[in-house]
Structures are given as structure tokens and as C-alpha cells.
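protien #1 (seq + structre)
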Amino acid sequence: MNLGLAGKTVIVTGGGSNIGRAILVTFVEEGANVVNAQRDERQGQKTVDEVYGLGGQAIFIKTDVTSWDSVQAMVRKTMERFGKIDVLVNNVGGATHPGLFVQKPREEYERDISLNYWSAINCIKAVVDHMIERKYGKIVNIGSEAGRIGASTAAIYSATKGAITALSKALAKELGRYNINVNVVCPGLTVPESREHVGEKSWWREWGFDFYTPEVQQEVVKATPIGRLGRPQDIANMVVFLTSDCAAYITGQTISVSGGATMM
């Protein structure tokens, strides 16, 4: 099946670690030109270097997606290098350490909202005029199962991911007339293939490895009909498909990739 991604220009935020890394690698293998936009310069450049020669091109642009000025600068550099933007994948996200809503400080609420919600708004706003002008664009926002069912120890994170879904549906209605598709992919628990695939600034480094112990992971497996944990490639496959010509008639959808842990 020809996905029609060769020569497309793709921006992936947080493309150096875990899910983002798998998304970036898969796009490059399909012949796309990929911009890895993230803060972690070491991990970001390392991932770009690793995919050299796989098919398409990849470059790293240091970006703070919570900063409007930084995002605008990243988009300008992308245009200077590749001359167009076909695809945006808003992958950056994370949460402060799990805790009850009533016990967490306001500063942590603000961090989660900025990282998970404002980052997507910034990036979409920065590319959408260009996509409208070309009458072509694919936007995939990475949501979360927490945004669909709520997580008792991650209320604000759940709320931001729910907001991503609502925003995406509204934008799909608004932008469809310009041949712009907007969809959401919601991963379940997706464990990195290797610690080497996780940057120092990833939330997996902050608390993920300690929280999702082998015992916790086994409990997740028991509750998953497919009977295993999610792999980064599982998410990447869906993201890349949704941005391909094969999915041209799919928009405004929220798709869980969680082994059946959530069925909605």
C-alpha cells in the first residue's frame, strides 16, 4: 500500500523519545522530510542522527512548544528548509507526578495545561494559515485514554487531553472545507522500547519508570483484551496512516490505540 508520504514535510513535536521517536522514524522510513521540534537538544539531535539514510530527511529544531515565539521561529525555519508544511503531529505531552487534585499545587496545574493544551494550540495556530492557503493539511493530536475516561490521580492531565479531543473535533468542522484533516490518537500505557529512547526531559525520566513498575505493568496487561502493553510502533502506525492519502476521508475522529483497554 502506497501511503503517499514521500516528499511530504512533517513536523513532529517531541520526536526524540518513546512514542514521538517511533512516529518520527516511521515517517522518515516512508520518505517524508521530518522536523523534530522539542526542547531536549541532546535527545532530539541524537534521534535525527540515528535515522539518517532510512529514506526521507530529518532535522532537529530546538523548540519550546509552550512558547508562541519559539513555535513561530520553528515554523519559519521549517519553511526556509523545506518550503511547505503538510503534516503536524502534536505529540508533546506529559504530566506531573500522580496525585489527588485537592493535594497538588496550582503550579502543577498550570504546567500540565501549558504542556498538553497550549502547546497544541500554539503549533496549530502557527501552521494553519499556510495549510489553508495550500488547501491541504493533516493534523494529528496525541490524546490519551485518560482524556476519555478520566484518571483519578491525574485530573488536570485528563482534562487537558479531553480538551484536545474537543478542540480537534471543532477544528475538523472548521477546516474541512480547506481539505485539512484533524484527528486524535489516544494511546493506552505505551512503554518505551529502551531507556535509550527516552530523553532526560521526558516525563518517563521524571516519574514514569518508577511509577509503572513491572508489577503495575502486569496489572495493566491483565486488564487489556489484547494481552500486552502498548509499543511506540503501535501508535506510530496509526498516526502515519491518518496523515496518509489512504485516510483522506477520515476527520474529526478520536481513535484509541490501547489494545482494547478502552472501547468507546
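ok now protien #2
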Amino acid sequence: MALSKIDVANMLTGEVPNANVAKLPASKLEDDINFRNIIINGDMSLAQRGTSTSGITDGNTYHTVDRMKTQVVTAGTWTQTQETDVPSGQGFAKSLKMDCTTADASLGADDFLIVRQDVEGQNLQYLKYGTSNAESVTMSFWVKSNKTGTYIIWLYHSGTSNKQISKSYTIDSANTWEKKTLTFAGDTAQAFANDNDARLRVYFVLAAGSNSQSGTLATSWEAYVKANRAVGQVNLADSTANEWYVTGVQLEAGQTSSDFEFLPYDVNRDRCYRYYYKVSSSGFRYVGWGQVDNDNNNIVAYIDFKTDMRAAPSAVETTGTAGNYKVREALTYTCDNVPTFNNADIWYSAVSFKKSGITSSNGFAQGEMLKCGMDGGYLAWSAEL
């Protein structure tokens, strides 16, 4: 298309008439990343803690995939893994799998099995809960299981009063990836507290005893009643042949679902680092700086987090033996013990590396920077919800 002198002049000054601006297709605009997904790591791509954990029985903790917590109340024994089995042609590379290794065909009244993600209140303010403009949210995900039947998604709102809403979905075809979409009304009565605590909990229910199923399913926001939270839920724990996979979990404002919002790996990783940060290496790696404490034979290493954590950690997680940790002053020394927690803020942690006999007389003046490394061990900090 030929351009007039006016067109060229407008382009040079930045005053381009709308009619002459090339317009992106609507599909391209919709694909632009805008962090619409409330769920973090919904494609199950990051698993800092490892790719497989077996022997999961009672407990409420994290095992493999970042941000996906597992809660078991005497409902069988499970192995959880990060898998490469994914729905074909959808862009996913990883999924989370729950595999039953010890069955519980007769659940106790309070038995429960769920996979969940907790969401900070300050990340939910735009939903406008507690007002007449409260937004609906739509949850979409891909799921596969050999056990067909009814499953429950349960949302729990922790606030001045604890509230809940549940929806059911059906696995129709065994061992087949299926996409599910559920819409939940907004809560006009109670706002999310604007803080960094867990204000919304998103539960995938996999098994539930009678005390969670004896009422009427809470399909609209109501005060928490245990009997109404998982009515109709199948028992995935009733056979060691049972397994359940999930990926592509997205929760977004509105009454319709959009395509899964894939984030760049580094963006997804840093969002997970807010809650759990692990430093590991297949070889020795310098991880911090510090100074010799002559009185206690310590090297206190100061380790910066990659991003501010949700809250200041209160401990350091380690593994291995003293031989997996080293310090360097004038020379490199193997530690006498595994490192111990000293203190932390949201952006760093001080960790004590213990080595008897090391002093500032070994070639560096007191207060000089030191290096710490490890091989086969790791350091990790948690600020999980």
C-alpha cells in the first residue's frame, strides 16, 4: 500500500492515524501474558524438592511439584511423582501423578485425601470479593485416571468467617486425558483479607470419608460445614491399581476459561522461589559470603535469595553429612557438621558452616569475604503457606 506524504509525516512524529496502524489478530492479543492464572506452577513444570516421593500416608506438606501441597488423613499410602505423561498437542511437558500403593477400600468417617494450592490474600484483591461486583472465577485443568466417576473441586475462603464452595466434575473415560472447566460464583458477602496469608485454598479432592459427604454439596458460597464439602466424591484409595494425573491447572477471573497461560521458565521459577528456595549442585558451588568467628569456629555465610520470599524463613533445610559441605578461607576445608540456621529476612539467610581450628590467621584478615560450597548436599528455605 502506497503511503502519502501525510502518512509518512505522521509516522515520523508518532501521530499515526488509527486506520493506518496494523492491527494484531484478536488471538494474538489474547495470548499476551497478563498473569491471569491465580495458580502458580499450574503446568507442574518445577519440582525443586524432587521428582518422586513414596510412602505418603498421614500429613499435610509438599513432596514434589512446587506449590502443590498434599494432605492425607489415613486414606491409603501414595507415591507422588512429576511425570512426562501429558495431554497430546497442548504444550505441556509435565504432570503431577498420585499412585495408590496401599489401598483403603473402607474409609473412616474423617479420612481425606487432597492435592491443593493456597493463595495469598493480596493476590486476590482484584476479584472484588465482599462487594456487589465480586467476580466469578473459572477453573480449568487436564486430568486423567483409571477410576471414572465423580470428583470434587472445593474452594475454601479463610477469613473473618470460614466459607466454602464446591463443584463436581466427572472422569468419563478411563486412562484418557480430559479437560474440565468449572465456574464458581464470586462471594459478595466477604472480602479477602489483603495480606500474605492463605486466604483461598483450592482443593482437588481424591477421597473423602462420610463426615465430608453426609450433607448437601456447597454449590454456592456458604459458611464452612464439613458435611457439605465433598458430597459424591469417589474413593481413589480403594485399589492399588488407582492413579490420578493432573496438569494445566488455571484459575482466572470471569465465567469462561481461556487457553492455559504458559509463562517463561524463569518467571515461573521465580514465582515458586517466593515460597521455597533450594540451592543444590552436582558439584561444589559457591553459595555465599561470610566471615570467620574465631570464638566459635564458625563461618557465618550470608546467602541472598533469588527473590524476596513471602515471609522470613525460620529454619534452613539440609541433607547429607558434614562431608557434603565445605568452606574456603585461605584453603578449602571440609565442615565438621552440616550447616545450621542462624537468622533470615525475606531477602537473605545467615547460615553457620562449622569448622574447628579455622581462624582469621589462615591468611585473611578478620571480616574478609569467604566462600562456601557443597557437593551432594543442599540448602533450602521455606516460606510456604
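Residues 29-271 form a domain with the Jelly Rolls fold (CATH 2.60.120.260).
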